[in-house]
Specification:
- It is a single chain.
- By secondary structure, this protein is α+β, with helices and mostly antiparallel strands.
- Helix content is 41%, strand content 20%.
- The strands form 2 sheets. A 7-stranded mixed beta sheet has the order 1-4-5-9-8-7-6, with helices on both faces.
- It is elongated and about 120 Å long.
Length: 330
Amino acid sequence: MEDLLKSIELCKNTDELEKLKVFVFGKKGAITAEFAKLKDLEGDEKKEKAKILNEFKEKFNLEFDAKFAELKEKEIKEAELKDAFNFTYFDLNATKGAFHPIMSTMDKIIDYFTRMNFSLEEGPIIEDDFHNFEALNLPKFHPARDMQDTFYFANSLLLRTQTSPVQIRTMQNTKPPIRMIAPGAVFRRDFDMTHTPMFHQIEMLVVEPNNNVSFANLKSILEEFLKYMFGDVKVRFRPSFFPFTEPSAEVDISCVFCNCKGCRVCKNTGYIEVMGCGMVHPAVFNNVGYKNCSGYAFGLGVERFAMLIHKIPDLRSLFEGDKRLLEQFK
């Protein structure tokens, strides 16, 4: 009879439990048969047997009721959950998802350079002053720091204003040659039609020992890259200034809106600025302990590329989460 009590706990649902009770106390049940045998007994033996059977019956019913209540509550909850989440239901009005234009643009750029055997490097978003400024030839009180309105913390740490610190960290931990790109979010205190406090950059760095690379190599790779991104555009290099490169240049492409004829977007110049570039400044190499080597680098804003590729007039619309804009990229 103890085995029958143990069988109660083994039941997985109320149906199994009901079948067990029929097996025990039904017309042809195991305990029903034992009760039927009492008529053949007499005296004390009959009393003792009847006492054992009645005690078992009472104990069985108590454990049966408790287990039945437990399983019934579980089945009710499962039924409610099934009604609430019908995973077999197919919504004919469901819409397709899509990558955000910023992420799809970033993926396209990363794919281009990784196919050319550039490594993908990442670094911390919260940086220190050395990696974000000083190692990049921007010592304290350098006027060029004013070009990057920075978010500072109380402990002299800051939100990185560019992904250039990743280049510094890579050079500190790796010997030349280096071919790398550094994508990621950066932060500056700006907000208007063409600037947001958080945006995305991708920077590229190439370093070779024995001065084996020149500006001609940089010019060649950028012309090919920009034609890959924007099609058959003209590429123009203008002399400029960046503390961490020398010589430095701004890179323009022929306006994708007016095809170099002149419009409001390009301010009637026929060209749109898309990135900065240059040969790595000797002071930067000195700060990371590099000697007898040369390199080049560029940096671009992913949002600016996304705006030009998709002809989006206001940068802020990329961060507003307006479905009317995002549904255009399905």
